[in-house]
Amino acid sequence: MSLTTTPSGAEPTRARSGWHPAKLIQPFVLLAPAGIWLLLLLVFPTLLILELSLIPGFRLGQPAGAYGLGNYLEIFQPVYFQVVLRSLFFAVGSTLLCLLLGFPVAYWIAIKAPRRWRNLLLVSFILPLWTSSLLRAYAWITILRPSGLLNSLLGVFGLPGQDWLNRSPAVFIGMAYSFLPYMVLILYASLERLDRRLLEAAADLGATPQQSFWKITVPQTLPGIAAGGLLVFIASLGDFVVPELLGGASSMTVSRLIYNQFLGATRNWGFGSSLSMILILAVSIAIALLLKYGDRSSAQP
Amino acid sequence: MSQTVIQNQDVAETGTKLDVELRKVFKVFNGETAVRGIDLEIHQGEFFSILGPSGCGKTTTLRMIAGFEEPTGGEVLIRGQSMANVPPYKRPVNTVFQSYALFGHMTVWDNVAFGLRLQKSSKSELQTRVGEALQLVKMENLARRYPAQLSGGQQQRVALARALVNRPTVVLLDEPLGALDLKLRKEMQMELSNLHRDLGVTFVMVTHDQEEALSLSDRIAVMNQGRIEQIGSPSQIYEYPQTPFVADFIGDTNLFQGQVEASYPSSLQVVTPNGLTIHVKLHDNGQLAPGDSVVVSIRPEKIHVSSGAAPEQMNYYDGTLKNVMYMGTHVHYVVELKSGDKVTVFQTNRAMALPSLNTPVQIYWSAADCIALSV
Amino acid sequence: MPPTNPQNFSVSATTRRRFLQASAAAVSGIVLSNCARNLSGSNAPGTASPEQTSSSPSDSTLRIFTWANYTDDELLKNFKDKTGIQAIVETFDSNEAMLTKMQTGAGKAYSIVFPSDYKVEEMIKMGMLLPLDKSRLKGTENLMQNWQNPGYDPDNTHSIPAVWGTTGLIFDPEKVSSEVKGWDYVWDNVDQLNRRLSMINDVREVFGATLRYLGYSYNSTKASEIEAAYEKLLELKPAIATFLTNGWEDQLASGDLALSMAYSQDALNLIQESPNLKYIVPESGSSLWTDTMVIPKTAPNPDAAYEWINFMLEPENSARLVERLKISTPNQAAYEKLSSDLQQNENLFPSKAVLAKCEGIVPLPSEVTELYDRYWTQLTST
């Protein structure tokens, strides 16, 4: 027994003595570029915002006060709470709309469309991303205004005109249009990996195509749905161009509020930072939940 | 004689009702014909195998029965009903897939209950039948597991239970044991066989493994290049192959090309180009006439090796021992005849001293043990 | 909620401030200037890195930080022909974005900046601007009386006014029920306007106009007055479709909006395309804004900056700006060069009586701006 344990016990030592300085440096060389990038552009700014958020009423160019939680307490005023709720309303609504519009498209491209057309279809779907978001929002104004393109079209078909501009529906439309490509891309990736044999197995066991869709396709692509939903949710939570231009007089969102604190008349960077930290926290929690539970529901046989 | 006996057994075991019928079924994929006019009749309660090399169209045939493919021509019937335009979910068949195709987001229990839930079975019925099905495949203890947490053999059992729980008219098995290692495969073969006997449901299995087909099936259809070469019981297929392909594909055999030199009421005399004369007993009524080209097939285990004189009427040849392979239960010899033909011989191991290489030996076989196949 | 007194900081606070300033300059400068560029709709060319330009200050280049469209290729070409200096223009879309960039050090490359009146006042207080050497300026005597000694920068010690304008209402006279003379019309017709009024997306302009309508100062600091304005605006809310500084034009021209509050320059440009529209300065008074030229203390090339100011003070160049942008000039000599059409355009050059009722927006203490901001958030949330 002792004979067999000795060599195996000695192994780590041998391995250690075999290490060259180059091997020690290797991980650093490999990780440094990304690490420095992250440190400089993610960790450091976030820490900076965290510190600013802890100085009540901090303004650039003015002496800083003592640390405190005043900025965070301010968030709990009803008016800001309402802003947070509206942001969530816009984000959730756009996410659902993207899912509703994006799933059939992704499904069609991934499963029904001829294979050789798939890449072309995908690219054509991503094309709108190449235009400026501001331009897109202005285009939607032209389409959605009461005498605009949409209502002219509806009129041609004898349908009643819609007064959507400067109301929530316009925000949902504008955001869904902006973020639909992300949703489609992620759902496509998820659906493309779907094991078609599972659909055959379901059909074989008596499931109609509709039943197969709800009982197999949807659960199997749940990680993709979650990831796509989260991405759209985060993006729409941060967007304020669309609510601003399309949402009308009652469209104050958290991101616009943050913008106002940093670049608006008040220039209250402290309060703006606390709002940012809340936003960062919310997004981080959502991502953490996705990482922890997102994959559990996926299939792996 | 033996042929008639086996046929009678078939009829007695399976009855005469047909579960699956294929009539002149064709399947063309993108201009390539995968199945070229198949006729099949599968009896109720039968364990029927479709055997053939990969790409022979056997899986396509199975998929047409399941409904995943529509025949380009011809007709599929199940219990006498035409299946034209009947989608898979309306067919009274269930499939055990080669890859098992278990639903990864469901537990074992939910996988098995899937079909019953779609039929809106009552809660109590669901409990009983899923429980029974899992018991049948000895998986009742792992019902709460997810497929990813199971071994290959366990997944196979779940796939079986999932197909059986719906009490289909026909169970289709697509290379069901292909992904298992040898030992497990032997075990599962036994269980499949027992399951089939206990349940009395019609099994249609696709396989490329001739041993599996021979040991499990009541009848076998051998397919090659989209056609059925022969349908028969395992022993018919093995003992009396009707085409050179079947003779060659099933088991090991020695094939001799030749011409019929003389034809008698119950036997033939065949001569090979190398000048070998072989006596063949006729099994069917023999439409072979002198001058016809034939292939003579003789199984290696039917050949005897000896150093003494052989009984009369035997095909008897002198040769040299060229190769010996010791296999444990038996010994493989390769003997080179004077004519230059090489013959493989299997002999059961009777603990004799093995003859040494390059020594002269004699081989012989009975005319009744070889068959002549027209080319 | 009164904000914490920012004056009571200790030694440790000073150290921290230094860290904050250094790090803010290093990091948030990059981040924020990128944000601001994205917000502005990316019509600004790429941000020049400060090192790149400040390390090689050349006499032959001048970096200008200004509003979109204030300069054009012809103007820059003329400047180069005249002085041999290559002017490079980058743009901002709000005074606040500009100030942030200048404060965080990302604006070190600019020798000329175009802040608005109230920002000039702020920047002087922060000590960011170079006092102007009057002996090096030519043509300041041409400035109109009102801009010889403006409230935001008495005696023009740090800034030279470049252009000015008013804030008012634009509408189609055929589509309003009675003659529009000012904000009365709006409050009298809330039901009829029903989400067909757009207002500038700026807290001070919207509240200022309302305060003015109520008879208070555009720059009120009294909480009671600001609250009264808020209440008044709440009454108006059903009439307001949206708060947009730009982007309302299309909706107004098509008749989907009945009335828009707008800066005179934007309104007059739209009227050129849709002559049926009319712009007025409300009779209750409005804001009068001036965009100026200043030289930051960090300017790498102040000599070229003086050349630029002198160039812009030349009547021809100033007049051309009026013609091109439909913006008002504070330069009397330039005014005289204009066609009589433009001279008599009351929208460009309102009468003394109207101007007397206008006020410039002035910077307010942070606790007051915070109050405005809170009411603004409330107004745009309900």
TrEMBL record, chain C:
GO cellular component: periplasmic space
Coiled coil: none
Keyword Signal: yes
Gene3D superfamilies: Periplasmic binding protein-like II
Gene Ontology MF annotations: polyamine binding
Major location (coarse): periplasm
Binding sites annotated in the UniProt record for spermidine: 118, 202-205
Localization in the cell: Periplasm
Keywords from the named record: Periplasm, Signal, Transport
PROSITE patterns in alphabetical order: TAT
Domain of life: Bacteria
Any single Pfam family the record assigns to this protein: SBP_bac_8
GO biological process: polyamine transport
Protein name per its UniProtKB record: Spermidine/putrescine ABC transporter substrate-binding protein
